[in-house]
Amino acid sequence: MLDDLDGLVSAESPSSDPVALRACRSVLEDIGTRLLGKRPTVLPGADSPGGDGTPGGLLWRLGPAGRPPVLLVGHLDTVWPLGTLRHRPFDVRESRATGPGVFDMKAGLVQGLHALAALHATTGAYPSVAFLVTTDEEVGSPLGGPVVTQWAEESRAALVLEGAADGGALKHARKGWSFYDISVAGRAAHAGLDPHQGRNALVDLAGLVVRLDRLASADGETTVTPTMAAAGTTQNTVPDRAHVTIDVRAPDSAAQRGLDAALRQLVAETAELPYEISGGINRPPLEEAHAREVLGLAHAAFDRLGLRWPGSARVGGVSDGNLCAAAGTPTLDGLGAVGGGAHADHEWTDIARMPERAALVGQLTADLDSRPRPA
Ligand SMILES: [Zn+2]
After folding, report:
1. Could you tell me the distance, in angstroms and rounded to a whole number, from the CA of residue 31 to the centre of ligand 1?
2. Which of 62, 131, 134, 359 is 20 to 30 Å from the Cα of 39, by its Cα?
3. Transmembrane region positions (predicted)?
């Protein structure tokens, strides 16, 4: 697993670089083909004739085709720009592996592939499995999202190979994520000669931003965070344009939809100048009810494997697991690497825990394959 992790981390794969993504995809294709004895289907990309579109992901469909598969989901893109390897190459010290994407989530992919290979080696056959790897999760899955949803709808359950929460805890719930870009249109004028001729878009937007606060819930469960703003053209011009981006997190679908309506209403009531809202709900929440069945099986699997139960957590970040849950599919997330520092320079994976995580994924896949999907 360590050799494969080295190979995969050493092929940089920023979401925005199609050439690098394609190269990393072929490294993963070789690793998976060697381990599983079968070439994957290369999924359609947003490829243009110039080759500057996002390449499609990979899918290994294994085992009996007549039965709904257990879906294993991951992504090969990372948030790290090309060249990160030069100052932070793949490295192992004691039981810590470091390098861009080592925790989010290349170790999870390696563990998942080895889990299936080991299952085949022990039983002589594959359970019904779909191993799906996307290429644009870190930018909101514009290409991979619909594919994840489609496979989730057809699957027995979804196991998401994203990195674990602290200490290896599984992720039984994720908040939902919405984002908005609100822009206000005013009228430009010279700030010294005739300021009264102008309509100040910045002042109008500022009034709106301070009121957005009241949409967040007092207990901190639902958050509304203005994140980026811009206005104006020069130092002495009344700004004719201003815009702000808003990040919204909500614990359940009802809260997420309620907040979407409340935000639109607040803007309509507050803005005095013409405005536009783009964006909306991006990922619905992964709610605890979606995870309950697989979480119970995971608990039993830890016992059977003689491993200490690491607990499970609800987290604020989103993943493609949100999409699996939204498809009504039993879903458990955080089944990938034990480590930490996702999206941070100190990102690391505990390599001593890689075998147990692979064993867990293998056990869960086999268990789910042998159980009918609950009505
Ligand atoms: Zn990830």
Report:
1. 20
2. 359
3. none
